[in-house]
């Protein structure tokens, strides 16, 4: 290696080591420390100039109906994979090579919502993959699901299961029934255009399909696989 390159290469190497160490320590700390917000929530607040509705609840205070509903809707292999569902990714690419449908796991969605900015770039996808790996290595599945349910967007400026339950039905997150849970899971692909509180025919149909899949998975018993 030429002598003039040794210093910048060494500096880049140290930067890489610092990045790995810092991000690993951050993710490890968040295994026990509840994040007060997320990058997605902060971005919404900056854009709208007001505070989003968001109240943290531990997983034990979030209805198992909602827990299994989001798994049925978003990532049925969640208890089994290690962050990436390569079968779903391959199927998505095969079904529509020009505009592949989403195949992100719950872990991937949690990583990008918690840590990353919105948009599409190779850098962002690379960071999403890195944080996904860290979370799968350092967090149990229950913690991943807990964070996901506390930062997911369920409506305009409404983040997390507790804020959604309180706003839409005046109930705590632990009191969500099967149909309410299915409606919340149904709007996850686009909660700013679809409403769980005033569901359209499409949302009701999607919720009914999610509820059928919940029954096929074994309802609450499926959570024992986590």
Helix content: 55-70%
Radius of gyration: 19 Å
Globally, the shape reads: globular
CATH class annotation of the largest domain? Mainly Alpha
Assign the CATH architecture of the largest domain. Answer: Orthogonal Bundle
Low-confidence runs of at least 5 consecutive residues: 97-101
Report what the structure shows:
By secondary structure, the chain is mainly alpha-helical. It folds into 2 domains: 1-30; 31-225, Biosynthetic peptidoglycan transglycosylase-like (Penicillin binding protein transpeptidase fold), CATH 1.10.3810. The chain has helices spanning 3-29, 39-48, 64-74, 86-95, 106-115, 122-138, 141-151, 161-169, 178-186, 201-217; strands spanning 53-54, 153-155, 158-159. Strands 1-3-2 form a 3-stranded mixed β-sheet, covered by helices on one side. A hairpin with a 2-residue loop joins strand 2 and strand 3 (158-159). Helix 1 packs across helix 6 and helix 3 (64-74) runs parallel beside helix 9. The radius of gyration is 19 Å and the shape is globular. The model is unreliable at 97-101 (pLDDT under 50).
């Amino acid at each position: 290696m030429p002598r003039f390159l040794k210093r910048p290469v060494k500096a880049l190497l140290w930067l890489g080591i610092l990045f790995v160490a810092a991000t690993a320590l951050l993710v490890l700390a968040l295994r026990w420390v509840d994040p007060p917000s997320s990058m997605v929530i902060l971005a919404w607040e900056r854009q709208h100039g007001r505070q989003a509705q968001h109240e943290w609840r531990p997983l034990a205070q979030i209805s198992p109906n909602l827990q299994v509903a989001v798994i049925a809707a978003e990532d049925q292999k969640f208890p089994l994979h290690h962050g990436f569902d390569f079968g779903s990714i391959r199927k998505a690419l095969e079904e529509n090579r020009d505009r592949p449908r989403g195949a992100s796991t719950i872990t991937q969605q949690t990583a990008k919502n918690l840590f990353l900015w919105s948009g599409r770039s190779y850098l962002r996808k690379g960071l999403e993959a890195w944080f996904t790996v860290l979370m799968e290595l350092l967090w149990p599945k229950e913690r991943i699901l807990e964070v996901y349910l506390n930062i997911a967007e369920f409506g305009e400026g409404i983040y997390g299961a507790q804020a959604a339950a309180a706003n839409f039905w005046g109930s705590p997150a632990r009191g969500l029934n099967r149909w309410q849970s299915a409606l919340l899971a149904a709007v996850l692909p686009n909660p700013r255009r679809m409403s769980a509180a005033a569901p359209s025919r499409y949302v009701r149909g999607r919720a009914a399909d999610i509820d059928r899949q919940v029954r096929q998975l074994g309802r609450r018993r499926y959570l024992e696989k986590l």
